[in-house]
């Protein structure tokens, strides 16, 4: 089964939640024969007690449980894991199980190895996958937040100092010059610097491009706030937000690794 796991934030009934889901299921959903929605809800208070009220340890305990449960469900071949919703003090795991699977007894057996974890589960007939397609699938703005998270985590893995503010470039596209000029006026009032506005004929639509920049940090909440502002500003004028880019600001150990890597390439080039 193809997988593409993504994480994004959303407000649900004025409550912030995190959705971690397999977006690769979307093109073929609903899956014929997998019409039972199985939701398992874990109370995080029990995990906090086990971890000595350490939030990070409690999360790791849950992720360990999640991995084992996914593995067991996968080995049985009875379900597809749609994803997880992290809400206030609870974690919700959502599976789509086979129509003929009598899962209540089997789920209890699977979860018997975790007696200290407080949970309950529900099984619901959902052959059209409405929960997945309507309640979990990200909106266009949330898709941008998914991309933000992927870029930020990639930068972090490469040793970037995300907490250091630097110039970040952003691009907006418009179908004609009139909305671009209007957004260009508003952008200046919001503290952005206009780098360029130009016509890009390589695309078939939205060929008018507004390139702006702003100095900010690259932690996910900050990047999401900035991209939300630009996304909505572009959409209100009939345009689209087309992403961002910046330069790496490396921590010292990462700088050493980059330097050594370059030196090794030069040394190897001598012996070619």
From TrEMBL:
Pfam family for this entry, one: RraB
Domain DUF695: 4-134
Segments forming domain Regulator of ribonuclease activity B: 147-246
InterPro entries in UniProt: DUF695, RraB-like_sf, RraB_dom
The protein, known as: DUF695 domain-containing protein
Annotated organism of origin: Paenibacillus alba
